[in-house]
Design brief:
The complex is a heterodimer of chains A (143) and B (177).
Chain A: H1 2-23, H2 31-43, H3 61-64, H4 68-76, H5 78-81, H6 87-102, H7 114-121, H8 128-142
Helix pairs in contact in A: 2-6, 6-7
Chain B: H1 2-18, H2 23-37, H3 42-47, E1 78-80, E2 97-98, E3 103-109, E4 114-120, E5 122-124, E6 133-135, E7 165-168, E8 171-175
Classes of the chains: A mainly alpha (143), B alpha+beta (177).
Chain lengths: 143, 177
């Protein structure tokens, strides 16, 4: 009798645990919504930006994610580094943006982790335009 | 017929041997307690989402009036309402251009109890409208947090709309999920 009671209790706990897992509210917005809130105001709904004012991220995001200096720049550029998102949410946002705007398969790039975001975003980028110009030249050489 | 009787008797006896009379009461009791306990857990309460068609929240009496500053979509606006200037809450008045660069935030709609992503696109190209100034600023941050400040004039910094500010729209982009 004791055994069946504890077995029943265990089963009840499992069911309750599952119900809690399934029913938990999301803690933050999904990456698509975070893109709208943190990036879309300037880069636009399709990432094309505004010629002469806001750079397009469509052709640069995926190539920059393929080498270390490019990845560091993506994490240090002010719009990313100073956003209100946590390291975890920022990593998820970049991992969503790169295949969507770069038009590549999700497996075709090395995903960002929260640890990598934390390592670089807190080091400010001093010469933003010069760093960007240098990286763009490097991208042209690579292509 | 007698074969059916025998089968019925055998199955009834086998059920009686395998179960206790109080077993059903016990299971039903556990189910009742379980169903009653689940909504009491804090996590279950947090997961509750208002269902469309529920009683509307109290909200402001003008929360559904698009030309009112208290319209629900205007929760973070800072400017003249385009609805009072010949346009609407989501369209620029004739003769103005919508700035593609914009401020984006979220607002809570008391009618369905859900949060939505709102884009505050400025309309540019005519001098200030001057009607229905609305400055609610929910979630607005000082200028030194540039990505969360709505004090910028979005009619500058864009090639098609680098001209005077006229009024502001509040377009729904998506449900904030």
């Amino acid at each position: 009798m004791q055994r069946t009671l504890s077995a029943r209790l265990r089963r009840l706990l499992w069911v309750l645990g599952l119900a809690i897992l399934v029913g938990s509210p999301a803690l933050a917005y999904e990456p698509r919504i975070n893109y709208m809130l943190e990036c879309q105001g300037c880069h636009g709904p399709d990432g094309r930006g505004e010629p002469g004012h806001v750079p397009s991220i469509r052709s640069t995001l995926a190539p920059l994610s393929r080498f270390d200096a490019g990845r560091r720049y993506l994490l240090q550029v002010p719009g990313v580094a100073l956003s209100m998102l946590s390291d975890q949410d920022l990593a998820a946002l970049l991992n969503w943006m790169i295949p969507v705007f770069g038009d590549i398969r999700p497996q075709a790039f090395r995903a960002f982790t929260a640890a990598e975001v934390a390592r670089y975003r807190h080091t400010p980028l001093v010469e933003i335009s010069a760093t960007r110009a240098r990286l763009m030249r490097r991208l042209q050489v690579r292509q | 017929m007698s074969r059916f009787d025998r089968w019925m008797e055998a199955s009834s006896r086998s059920v009686a041997r395998r179960t206790s009379r109080r077993g059903l009461l016990g299971s039903l009791g556990a189910l009742l307690v379980g169903v009653g306990v689940l909504p009491l857990l804090p996590v279950a309460r947090g997961a509750e989402k208002p269902v469309k068609g529920d009683e509307p929240e109290a909200g402001h009496p003008e929360a559904q009036n698009p030309t009112s500053c208290n319209y629900w979509r205007h929760c973070a606006i800072d400017g003249f309402l385009c609805g009072c200037c010949g346009g609407s809450a989501s369209a620029c008045p004739p003769g103005t251009v919508q700035s593609p660069i914009t401020w984006v935030g979220t607002c809570h709609n008391p009618a369905d109890g859900l949060d939505y992503v709102i884009s505050y696109n400025d309309c540019c190209g005519k001098s200030s409208c001057g009607r229905c100034l609305c400055n609610r600023n929910e979630g607005d941050m000082p200028l030194y947090v540039p990505f969360r400040s709505n004090d910028y004039d979005w009619c500058t910094g864009s090639s098609v709309a680098n001209i005077p500010y006229h009024c502001s729209t509040a377009r729904v982009l998506a449900r904030a999920t």
